Amino acid sequence: MNPRLEQLHPYPFQKLRELFVGVTPNPDLAPINLSIGEPRHPTPQFIKDALVAGLGGLSNYPITQGSDALRGSISAWAERRYGVKLDPATEVLPVNGSREALFAFAQASVDSSRHGRRVIISPNPFYQIYEGAALLAGARPFFLNTLPENGFSMDWSRVPEDLWEQVNLVYVCSPGNPTGKVMSLADWKALFDLSDQHGFVIAADECYSEIYFEEGKPPLGALTAAQQLGRGFRNLIVFNSLSKRSNVPGLRSGMVAGDAALMKAFLLYRTYHGSAMSPVVQAASQAAWNDEAHVIENRRQYAEKFAAVMPLLKDVLSFDAPDAAFYLWARVPGGDDAAFARGLYEKEHVTVLPGSFLARDAAGVNPGKGFVRIALVDSLPACVEAARRMVGFVGRAT
């Protein structure tokens, strides 16, 4: 087997299962799981109907590039959302969820030859696919801590100057997982300038971009920033997904857009990778990208949950309201995130994810230590009940 597999770390939820071994949660309380970022709002009926209507596509092999109609719908959505015109023939690809594409892009882009660029920069804490993609591509991850003292931004000055010429790819996540941080235009300019100077590719993970709290004020995206700065999409690839936007995590449908030259090479890789999207999924995806009403309702529900939960938790956990996404990144009393999560599960039957499970030790610290990630994905009553149980748990522990 590939020896690089031995470099992979256990996934955070495997660590969570191991943390709970031997723990019997309070049997008098119904379980509430806020550990995983899995949307639980109902899938819109019109998407289910489009899926069923597209079943005739089961008799056809899909093409890797996807249908003209689907790429057209993604391009039209990007113009509405980001104010950019993408060529659906050369700058857009449908993918089987952003996770699949974020991993595959590193395999296609890293030059693992002796003299190749073999460093991939990732935020820390991070989505673990970035790390696994780097390791299995034969690259070396470099973790850039996002800390409260710098507003959870990626501080590029902390990258050693002599490392930049070895950097192949930089993963960024905006809105961020787990912090909810959104990159500003100044943040994007700094990163674009570094890319132009050193020649690395930017992989912008924007799968949380449609979960925000003030209608009409969406988070700034990489494509919009690139256009506003007048640089075009050079060395920029953006990843997005229907999972969070449209409550269809099981559909496994997303999109990649950006630099046409990079997209051409990525399409070649995907042709051999065998990752074409089923025509049935394409039909449902096209319907989802074409509609915004269900996304507005989705945002309304998340905003309602944050408005209800944050006042309850503000006196027992330390956190800032996120810019976007559906996570609270909260500092726990006592600083032991794993012990907090274990105790909360045992006493209150509420599951949250220890922040240290989402990060690596870098520059002498684990930037997730002392935090928990709370995913407000369940119903409003469940999220409120979970918050009340957390208040009781902290009150009894102090």
TrEMBL record:
Organism of provenance: Thiobacillus denitrificans
Pfam family, one: Aminotran_1_2
CDD domains reported for this sequence: AAT_like
PANTHER family xref list: AMINO ACID AMINOTRANSFERASE, L-GLUTAMINE--4-(METHYLSULFANYL)-2-OXOBUTANOATE AMINOTRANSFERASE
Cofactor annotation: pyridoxal 5'-phosphate
Domain Aminotransferase class I/classII large: start-end pairs: 32-376
Lineage: Bacteria, Pseudomonadati, Pseudomonadota, Betaproteobacteria, Nitrosomonadales
Recorded GO MF terms: pyridoxal phosphate binding; succinyldiaminopimelate transaminase activity
UniProt name for this protein: Succinyldiaminopimelate aminotransferase
UniProt entry keywords in alphabetical sequence: Aminotransferase, Transferase
